[in-house]
Specification:
The structure is a homodimer of 245-residue chains. Chain A has 2 domains: 2-138, Sandwich (Jelly Rolls); 149-235, Arc Repressor Mutant, subunit A (Orthogonal Bundle), CATH 1.10.10. The first copy, chain A, has helices at residues 2-15, 20-27, 110-119, 121-147, 150-167, 182-189, 193-205, 221-227, and strands at 32-36, 41-43, 51-57, 60-65, 71-77, 96-99, 103-109, 175-177, 209-212, 215-218. In chain A, α4 (121-147) runs antiparallel to α5 and α6 (182-189) crosses α7 (193-205). In chain A, strands 2-6-4-5 form a 4-stranded antiparallel β-sheet. Chain A has a 3-stranded antiparallel β-sheet with strand order 1-7-3. A 3-stranded antiparallel β-sheet of chain A has the order 8-10-9. Chain A is an alpha+beta fold and 245 residues long. Chain A binds a DNA duplex (30 and 30 nucleotides) through α7.
DNA sequence: CGGAATGTTGATATGCCTCAACTAAAGTGG
DNA sequence: CCACTTTAGTTGAGGCATATCAACATTCCG
């Protein structure tokens, strides 16, 4: 599938200027397709993978499992994201990776990537930047989950998901796919299902958004972003996206 | 100062095997010394630095500033850490960097580093790994601040600081420097000063640790680590350290 | 169509925040 | 080196956001 390369290149271009040579080099990477069923683990804590993945369709998530069995979602990944790029240089997984819904990913052997980095350093730098933006998102998540009350936290979270979906060209008519249950959102935001449910209703009543049938409908971006103190700077995109509506 | 190079190499070796050639290449890097007063900002949100830093002495912290003016500490850095390595590939700072106490850092021009990466890719990979471990620590912080109650959160935090201090050879007679106020610890853990103070007393009463005069005294590592569910795997050190006592 | 997963609502409990007063320690200038 | 000021730590009381428990409604799915 050439499409994996398209998606991969589109994503990298959101934050990095790629030369023709870079693009050609990326297209030369051998990629295998892998699909996963909803809730299927792609990689588990403790694993030592020898490939990295690029998400093609669907949503993939990273999570920690606590001794109690509870789950903490760390990040959600959509088309073009590299949810386990860190396995290139960090041998053992300190968290797990699972598909949220039916998802397809492209897998690329570490060997191929490392060889390419030596030959074309700028590709390595682009993917390095990818992992650094990942880290910036983690930092923002720390602040979001530590300092904001649940309604604002949820607003910020939804803004981020929507904004990133837009960059990945997944927004259509003011809505984007978001096939998470409210319980899962709670497991990402460090809040109980009940509290998420009430926060969701509060945001809906404000007329800022609607969330149903696995989609997020944006109703008033400015209001939602303000309420969640969302400023997309930390996503480090080259062109800032116009917020729709 | 040759000492900056020693500290830098010692830290990289904690997670990466360096060849003689790698070490020599690192020692060839031109480094300038910079010192900072307590609470002085080294880099501010929005800045676009053209150097990166390695901490030599003291403690340096990354933090977000919220619209209200409140501060969220994101990470704390000691000897050998690269607190702003991400500026190599992410132009604009999405957070700030300040000295906690009197600190000295070595600054290295991005230009020198990038040139070295092209010439000796393995150095780039080592520093890439450094930034990836940083990200792993951020992930752990998300889980810590989202899922654990304040006393356990504090225990986990103190274990991490102590463990990393030990790797940086800063532990002496069962104690390490930790020149943070309880208020600052609260700003890291998303808890109020009052609550931190009470949690601190609870941990002390358990006989697990003592915290005073800018130092953390470890009294019962096993108990503290168990209470905080601390498992150092996410720090990705090559040799795991024996927990003292 | 029936069962399971997900979402909704209400009631109660509690961990943590906020405010406030006070104590102890550290830093500073005379 | 001591009086003074500032900063950091401690303790108590009250209120609130969020967790927990429980029942029920709705949607999904085989």
């Amino acid at each position: 599938m050439a499409r994996v390369h398209d998606v991969m290149i589109h994503k990298l271009k959101e934050h990095t200027a790629l030369s023709r040579k870079d693009e050609a080099a990326l297209r030369s990477l051998p990629v295998k397709l892998r699909s996963a069923a909803p809730a299927e683990d792609l990689v588990r804590q403790g694993d030592q993978p020898d490939v990295s993945m690029v998400v093609l369709t669907g949503m993939v998530a990273r999570y920690h499992t606590l001794p109690s069995g509870a789950r903490q979602y760390l990040s959600f990944h959509i088309a073009g994201d590299w949810p386990d790029a860190q396995t290139l240089f960090v041998d053992k997984m300190d968290h797990s990776l699972s598909a949220i819904n039916a998802a397809t990913v492209g897998t690329i052997a570490h060997k191929s990537l490392l060889a390419l980095f030596e030959r074309v350093p700028s590709i390595g730098f682009a993917i390095w930047r990818e992992t650094l933006i990942d880290a910036a998102i983690f930092r923002e998540t720390i602040t979001n989950n530590s300092k904001r009350n649940v309604p604002a936290r949820l607003a910020h979270f939804l803004c981020e998901q929507y904004y990133r979906a837009q960059a990945a060209q997944l927004v259509k008519d003011g809505s984007c796919p978001l096939e998470l249950s409210q319980e899962q959102i709670g497991e990402a935001l460090g809040a109980s299902l009940t509290t998420i449910n009430r926060a969701m209703q509060a945001l809906r009543r404000k007329g800022t958004m609607e969330f149903r049938l696995g989609r997020l409908y944006m109703r008033n971006w400015a209001r939602l972003a303000e309420f969640g103190q969302f400023d997309p700077g930390y996503l480090h995109l080259r062109r800032s996206l116009r917020a729709p509506k």
